[in-house]
Amino acid sequence: MKRSFLLSTLAVLTLLVAVTVPAYAQATRTWVSGVGDDANPCSRTAPCKTFAGAISKTAPSGEINVLDPGGFGAVTITKSITISSEGFEAGVLVSGTNGIIVNVPNATDVVVLRGLDIEGLGTGLSGVTVLTGGTVYVEKCTINHFTTSGINFTPSVAGSQLTVTDSIIRNNGGTTGQAVLINATAAVKGNFDNVRIENNNSGLRVLNAGAVVSVKNSVAAANTNAGFATGSGSLTLEHSAATGNGTGVVCGGGAVRMGNNNITLNGTQVSVVVAGTCFAFKNNDIDPPAAGLTQLTPQ
Q: Residue 11 falls within a domain, yes or no?
């Protein structure tokens, strides 16, 4: 009888302990705050402190939102997710390492980075690094002071995509790197619209044969070397400007197609290497005119 009573008491105590231990299921929407705590469930009323703390509590295809200004730290992303800040300073401040690593397995895994201020302090490696696969959107972001690349897009899964809109990528690349590197080992796509690429060692570089990249309504200015360059792959440049760079556009391999652009005040306006082809269509303002361009008949 006494043994039965002890067992019953033990069972009740075990149940009470289980009830009092917090167990947080992954939520489709979580929150971070400059005054949050990663021990919290990352809810609206009990936000987390960092993106790394929130991501483990956010369900695949969910969203991390920023409640108020703060520095939310580096993060590695391994699933579809959105990290979004609308109207608040959302800092990712790193030194000697990468800011955001995207390492999702499939080209169909969607990652959205919106409204982030990604700062490398002159010692950070890359602001955003994309490995393996993914469809990655960088929207309304500033990426600054990284030594290797502002964005390093090097996936190995065919069909992966990078889309950058309404963003500033500046002061990156040290003495050998660039603002954006597209150097995947598979067929990928890149899309850039309303992007400013300024004061980097080099601007946008496309180096893999399977890349198809489009740039519209964008500016590459004051980059030490090329504003836009290919070593392979395909680059279409429309309604954009390359000014104040070492070289405006380098056609170093693959094909570059240019229409309705302003390419002026560079050390060299357009450089066409033997392995590269530059096509000019529609109206380009290139001053002085560049040798080696193939003029296409307007459609």
A: no
